[in-house]
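task queued by scheduler; priority normal; single chain, no ligands, no partner chains; default sampling; output format set to structure tokens
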Amino acid sequence: MRFIILSLLLFLSLGLTSFFHPIHLSVSEVNFNQESKSIEISSKVFIDDLEDGIVNIGGPRLHLFTENEVEDSDQWIKKYFDKNLKIKINDKDVAFSWVGRETDQKRDIQAVWVYLEVSGIRKVKNMELENTLLYDVHEDQRNMLHLKCNDTKKSWLFDLKKSIETIQW
């Protein structure tokens, strides 16, 4: 009897992990494209966490990539990113333009890639990056950020204790 109960508990716990992801991590890439004079940003976040974050700022449950998706989902996602991903270039705040979003329907329906851009950047002397994505959703949230700019490649891991990094050239 004890074996049956333990087996049932193990089965239930394994089944529940398929509905929840135990790792709270986002990955972002920030690239300075000298040819187009733009900063290109791509971020991969878990869909359920992003939707929770949007609800936390007063938005609706988006139901991303379903037939019940909210019509203005892109505006809510951009609003959330504007609030939680900030970049200063040459000591000036910059605003993001929305490029788009996508998910891999065949391999990773749990995550979404969000694409943003900052245009009109001729030269980067210094950059300050602040990444607080999903801190309002999970206390153990970690945000990895990879930067390519001015022949430099740099990576950081942000968390609740450290959410800002600065680099100069």
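post-processing summary
- The CA atoms of residues 32 and 149 lie 5 Å apart.
- The beta strands are 25-33, 38-46, 85-89, 92-93, 97-104, 108-119, 126-131, 142-149, 152-158, 164-168.
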